[in-house]
Each structure stands twice: as C-alpha cells, then as structure tokens.
Amino acid sequence: MAMQPLDLPEVELRSGWDPLDSDVERACRIGLAALNLIHQTLRQLIEPQELGPALCRLDAGEALGDSWDRLGELPDGMATISLLQLVDSLAFDADYQLARYGLTSLSEDHKELLQTLRHIGVRV
Fold it and tell me: pTM of the predicted model, to two decimals?
C-alpha cells in the first residue's frame, strides 16, 4: 500500500515575501512540517522509526525536482533549495542516523532547519 503524502502546515512569512511564489511556499511548508516531525520525535511524541517514513511522505525530492530552475533565480532561492535538500536527505538517513547516534543526533538537523526557515522568512 502506497503511503499518502502528509498534509502540510500553513506558513506565516515576513513582510516583503512574494505570496505568489508557490514554489517557495511549498518548500517552506515542507520544511516546517519536517521541523515539527523532528520536534515531535525529540520530545518522544512519535516513535523514532516513524520519522523516516513520515519525512519521505513530505515529498521534498519531488518538490526540489519540480522547482529547481525557478528557485535558483530567486533572492532566497539557494536557501530554499538547501531546505528541500536537507529534508530529502533526512528522509532517507533518519533511520541510520537514529540507530547509530540516537535521538540527540536530530538536534543539529532541527537547528539547521529552524535557521534556514528563518533565513527564508518563515516566522517560527
């Protein structure tokens, strides 16, 4: 049975951000959802083995492929690309990372996601 994509949260962006740029909005929603999943895992509200599959359901790799060219042309485009790359790599490395280093290894990923979202302009 194929896993359904997760519903993505709404994002509140700083003033001056172009709300018509759906690629940035999609990336920010994916990043915020990933941040929330990692936070829930760190607080042990979800099981660590559920994190990888949940991150995969965010489809960060698909979003990256769909919007790579357009994002590269935007002022915060490289940060947005980095955000999607981080979520995509976490989706596939979470199980290994947790098995090898434990829950505390997610703290740096949480911090990096938070900083990148703030750089792009998401109010977190």
Answer: 0.83
